[in-house]
Amino acid sequence: MKILIIEDEAPAAAKLTTALEQAPVEIELLGITGSVRDSVQWLQQNQRPDLIFMDIELSDGQSFRIFEQVSIDCPVIFATAYDEYWQEAFECNSIDYLLKPIRQEKLEAALKKYESLKQHFAGALEQLRNWQQHPPSYKKRFLIKRGPDYVTLKTDDIAYCYAAHKLVCLIDGQGQRYLLDKSLSDLERELDPAHFFRLNRKYLANINAIRKLKGFGKGKLLVELHPAAPEEVIVSSEQTASFKDWMDA
């Protein structure tokens, strides 16, 4: 763990360094600065630390001024004798706020929090990379049995789908109906969410099939589909906001 200490009092910096060395983590101290000016210069000229321990009152002003002059994208643990700046601290990358004199167990708890956050975001980043390298694939067509024959229906040709008993009815742009032996939830996972939206428990529609929206009282929406649906299709008030965002994407 590569650490920068920003602290203007030499005894406090030395004490923090000793406490970090005693913590059950591997520490590499990259440097110690004691002023806003020196800290800005150090951050501009050196490699990015993994974590910064930062006092608030420095020799030439408050450390919050550092953030106004240089971009800091790593976590910060504030270590200060003042308890009134915690709100400003958490607006400046802070993951913890330690009051002096710093107890060893508080310091180690803060380091543990950093490690936990690091693992969490590393996992999220890995998932994002995997998704970028292997984006989800969606169905392009369905093979559907009609009597003794089979026909293919392109996903782009589906206007909307609705649940009917234990089957799903697919309606194409000409109003033709096709029966599919699966649930609407299964079908929803197979269709691209950029083009299809689950309007309610019963209906899943292609954006190209949505002709008109009307207010339906208490925040609900009445959706007019083409071809016309066999019943009123209503989006609940809980779904209205996300549906509008999807329509406006």
TrEMBL record:
Boundaries of every HTH LytTR-type domain copy: 142-249
Key words of the record: Phosphoprotein
Gene Ontology MF: a single term: phosphorelay response regulator activity
Classification via SMART domains: LytTR, REC
Response regulatory domain location: 2-115
PROSITE patterns assigned: HTH_LYTTR, RESPONSE_REGULATORY
InterPro entries in UniProt: CheY-like_superfamily (IPR011006), LytR-like (IPR046947), LytTR_DNA-bd_dom (IPR007492), Sig_transdc_resp-reg_receiver (IPR001789)
Pfam families, A to Z: LytTR, Response_reg
UniProt key word Phosphoprotein: yes
Sites of 4-aspartylphosphate modification: D55
Domain of life: Bacteria
Classification via PANTHER family: STAGE 0 SPORULATION PROTEIN A HOMOLOG, TRANSCRIPTIONAL REGULATOR-RELATED
Name recorded for this polypeptide: LytTR family transcriptional regulator
Organism listed in the record: Flavihumibacter solisilvae
